[in-house]
Design brief:
alpha+beta; Translation Initiation Factor IF3; 26kDa_periplasmic_antigen; signal; 238 residues; Alpha-Beta Plaits; 3-stranded antiparallel β-sheet; Secreted protein; single chain; 4 helices; SIMPL/DUF541; 2 domains; 36% strand
Length: 238
């Protein structure tokens, strides 16, 4: 009798355990999807560039290679002296690109040496673009044969871009708050931010082709450059 009673208790315990296990929630049951909102934000700053880069090329052709190089070096030295008088730092001037090349012509299908070409290219960074016109006028008077197209940019381009980037995120947040409120929800914390722009590079502008008199100086104006930033931001909704 006692043995039957014990077996009955064991059976009841197993049945109870099975019932309790059946009442547990399924571990693989799908959870409710997170509520989020994704918006984009754009911002721009319109500023006058404060730095310029451009090139000056000196080109000489003739029969005497050494004499040609000396002429190019003389013009280069005069330019360097003028730039020094304008307080342009040496690290903002590059004048090492010297190029020499023989020139040929054909006579009765026979190639013959006709002379040499010697050229030098100077790259100049102006932190005061107001000097540009006077430098170009002086360079042309000394014998510079080509003025490269100038590029304008900012000495603190990264800081200006960061300012635009922060403004773009602020725009995105304002847009998300407006949309969430209209949908009867409340904006939560930031889930993800993606950047879709980059800091500005130097911008080309039209070069000055020639100067006839000192009265024509200071005619090259940089205008304005737009620094743009674009982001996409995801927010949680409550």
């Amino acid at each position: 009798m006692s043995r039957i009673s014990n077996l009955t208790k064991v059976s009841l315990l197993l049945l109870g355990s099975t019932f309790l296990l059946g009442c547990q929630p399924a571990s693989n049951a799908p959870s409710a999807p997170a509520r989020t909102i994704q918006v984009s934000g754009d911002a721009s700053l319109v500023e006058v560039p404060d730095r310029m880069q451009f090139t000056l090329s000196i080109r000489q052709e003739g029969q005497q290679l050494v004499q040609l190089k000396q002429t190019v070096d003389t013009i280069t030295a005069a330019l360097l002296q003028q730039l020094e008088q304008l307080n342009i730092a040496k690290q903002d001037i590059s004048s090492y690109r010297l190029f020499t090349q023989p020139m040929y012509h054909y006579d009765n299908n026979k190639r013959e040496l006709s002379g040499y070409l010697v050229s030098r290219e100077m790259n100049i960074v102006l932190r005061n673009p107001d000097h540009y016109d006077s430098i170009v006028e002086f360079a042309l008077a000394q014998g510079v044969t080509d003025v490269g197209m100038p590029r304008y940019d900012f000495s603190d381009a990264r800081a200006r871009y960061d300012e635009a980037l922060a403004a773009a995120i602020s725009v995105a947040k304002q847009k998300a708050e407006l949309m969430a409120s209209a949908a009867g929800a409340e904006l939560g914390e930031v889930v993800q931010i993606s950047e879709h722009s980059q800091a500005p590079r130097a911008v080309k502008t039209q070069a000055v082709e020639a100067f006839r008199s000192r009265a024509m100086a200071d005619v090259s104006l940089p205008g304005t450059t737009q620094i743009e930033a674009r982001v996409s931001v995801s927010f949680a909704l409550r």
